[in-house]
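Study this one:
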Amino acid sequence: MKNDTPRPSLVKELFMGFCLGTANIIPGVSGGTFLLVFKIYERVFAIVNRINKGLIVRFAALVFSLAKNLGRNGSGKRLAAFLEETDTLFLFKLIVGALTAILLLSSLMKYLLVHHFVYTYSLFFGLIMLSIIIPVKMLKSLKGPAAFMILLGLALTVFISGSVNPYDKVKIKSDTLERRYQNLYPQGNSGLILQPGKQAGIQADGQFEKGEGQAKQSDLFKFVGKYTIKEYVYAAVCGAVSISAMVLPGISGSLVLILMGAYFDVISAISLLKSGQLDTLAFLCCFGVGIVVGGLLFARLISFVLNRYYTSTMAFLIGLMIGSLHALWPFKRVMIMGQQYVKQDGRILVIENAQIYTNINILPGSGHELVFALVFFLGGCGVMYAFIRAESSQVS
């Protein structure tokens, strides 16, 4: 059935997609909120809910016909009519805009987390804390079951964030790479090359190269063993879960990735696409498959749950967001790892005296760090307040 909603210009559609991508890469900013602000929330959900096996088969047949006939015999017009009829062209434009934003901003987010962890998390903390207002305004009642679901969501989030220590994750990876290096070079290697700098997710006094030498051109478009099978599978799971959160107003998909301990891995992989390593591409493909499957399956599930158990579901989501503030507290205990082995560009590197942020919250000290953290926290609150005002004006 053809959608009679007035079509905005191509530039505006791509811009809306760019805003959605920006929202989904920043924890605390909900893609669902932007859908409401742009008045396309119901339209996008309607498109996604129409996607089924029959629609996919028909689309594939039209694409095959287009390729076979090279656009002749009206194959191009039939495909265009199909995209117009199902409104999937609009969805495609949004996706293109969103992917553009994610590709452009992933390196920036990685840099901020590596070099300005406290200030970045302070900004995230302010975004999330104020964004809780959105689902609270959508909640119809705070009595009995709703209050219980808020507490349940809060307790679950705190438990998850408290049980997954980033230091343990880094230590397991480092030990695995250390054993691999020792198997390659049982006699050791005296030719260490000092490379001052910092590595992903940690702060280091110095970086040393061991064993595998400089990255070669032959390493491009090859698998270098950067990820394990479990990490590929977990990437797909994270994609499915995060896309389910992205479509809900007030719930951030990036926040879900932080709680699942996958946010930094995902934005790092996106920022490293230019390296040409097949590991990175395969990791993101698994994440993308999870997004597609999760979007098709969970969109219907979420619609069903919200229709049947709206108050309890929104209360549970509010609890998740409140509990996430525990994970986003910017001041964490730092642990020192004497030698951390990492894999980069097809080689094994050793970082000495690596400083790794744990999931253990501490009180902030005094000084300029606290002052700047407060500034970024207030900045996050201000940005989210502007979004809430924009959403309220659109709804009214």
The beta strands are 193-194, 202-203, 206-210, 332-344, 347-361. DSSP finds 16 helices and five strands in the chain.
